[in-house]
Amino acid sequence: MIKFQPLFLSGAFVGRARLSGAGRPHLRTAAWRAVWGAVKSNPVYADRYRHLTTRENNKLKPTQAQTVLAGAILRQLHAVITTGQAWDPDIATHGTRRKPTTLAEVAA
Fold it and tell me: Which parts of 1-108 are beta strand (E)?
């Protein structure tokens, strides 16, 4: 027996996206709570949140942006634990982080 599975191309889905609720609920809760602190205290995550919620194309709602950041935190945490390498903001931003150009920005 062959099952038919509809093909959805990236960005072609029209409808309401929702989480399945599958997985580890405690891990999901911990990641969700980590987003709140990360957006307030980590400039990398604050910039990413601001970008996701204010960009012109495909602007995300706050809850959607928080979900994106929760996934990013979990992936980066997994990388830090499995490689033993310290978290690096340049790696976290895929090398797109703006580098300080003046002495005042470096001191800040």
Answer: none
- What's the pTM value of the predicted model, to 2 decimals? 0.68
Contact call for residues 48 and 38 (beta carbons, < 8 A): no
> How far, in Å, CA of 33 to CA of 28, rounded?
9
Task: Output the CA angle 28-39-32, nearest 5 degrees.
Answer: 10
Residue 66 near residue 49, CB atoms below 8 Å: yes
Regions in the chain scoring below 50 on pLDDT: none
Half-sphere exposure of 98 (CA within 13 A, CB side): 8
Residue with tokens 């609920």: 25
Based on C-alpha coordinates, what's the Rg of the chain? 17
